[in-house]
Amino acid sequence: MKKFYGTGVAIVTPFQTDGSVDFSGLENIIENLIGNGIDYLISLGTTGESATLTSLEKKEIWKFTAQTVAGRVPLVAGVGGNYTAAVVENIKNLDKQGFDAILSVSPYYNKPTQEGIYQHYKTIAAQSELPVILYNVPGRTGSNISAETTVRLAHDCTNIIAIKEASGNFDQFNQIMRDKPESFMLISGDDPVTLPMIALGAVGVISVIGNAVPQLFSDMVRLCLDGKWEAARIIHYQLIEFTKLMFIDGNPAGVKEALKLTGLCENTLRLPLVNVSPKVSGLIAAELKNLNS
């Protein structure tokens, strides 16, 4: 599973000003990411505003993305939800041509127990033809996948190959790294802590800010993986302010603003998400100029 080492990017879904999917903008973004050193891509994760897309739109986006990527880098489909049977059905119905894995977010809102989370993922793994990457983001889902549950799934389900960890809990990261099977991968799900997570043994990141600064961010991750910590820290520090600005008014509002400023797509979002404030827009523009100078 070395194909998931390095920098993965959760691609935004660009929209036209009328709210329809902007496939030309999506092509621009994909080409820019591949051309600037990203290692793999994730289609329709949280950053892709998947919660606001219809089933037909998702199918069209997945198909277009797979055709555009054309096997040049590994590709992951984001398929999750809080009804296990529906997630299984959606995975079965996915046109898997061109995809290498499934990224599946932990069930949200209904707050299952750890046993419920375990059974949810065990059921998905048993039914999925593609390997599964767990996604733990308690700030969005309202529940945490404990280290014990992650390790249990990693040992019991050979089709579960990794976890995208965005809990921010380093005690949890430590336990996963200590107790997991050797082949199971810890992946950072939180841009600002990618460097220290790789220092612990994470194999890389699934990034948001990589949409906007793919070369700079993927360079930092490669330096980390090569053990070149001094050079990696220089880039890490350069990105601190930009990373803050990407999330201050929510995700993907910040990164879509940056993409508009770089000319790749419009900054249109679907309600209930709205654009960044004029003040934040100005700060993002200034920081992009600073990073590019």
Q: Topology, please?
A:
Elements: E1 6-10, H1 23-35, E2 40-43, H2 55-69, E3 75-78, H3 84-93, E4 101-105, H4 114-127, E5 132-136, H5 138-141, H6 147-156, E6 160-165, H7 170-179, E7 185-188, H8 194-200, E8 204-207, H9 214-225, H10 229-238, H11 240-247, H12 253-261, H13 278-292
Parallel strand pairs: 1-2, 1-8, 2-3, 3-4, 4-5, 5-6, 6-7
Helix pairs in contact: 1-2, 3-4, 4-6, 6-7, 8-9, 9-10, 11-13, 12-13
Q: What does this protein structure show overall?
A:
By secondary structure, the chain is α/β, with parallel strands linked by helices. The chain has one domain (2-231): Alpha-Beta Barrel (TIM Barrel). The protein contains 13 helices and 8 strands. The protein has helices at 23-35, 55-69, 84-93, 114-127, 138-141, 147-156, 170-179, 194-200, 214-225, 229-238, 240-247, 253-261, 278-292; strands at 6-10, 40-43, 75-78, 101-105, 132-136, 160-165, 185-188, 204-207. β6, α7 and β7 (185-188) form a beta-alpha-beta unit. α6 (147-156) packs parallel to α7, α9 runs antiparallel to α10 (229-238) and α12 (253-261) packs across α13. The longest helix is centred in the first third of the chain and has 15 residues, at 55-69.
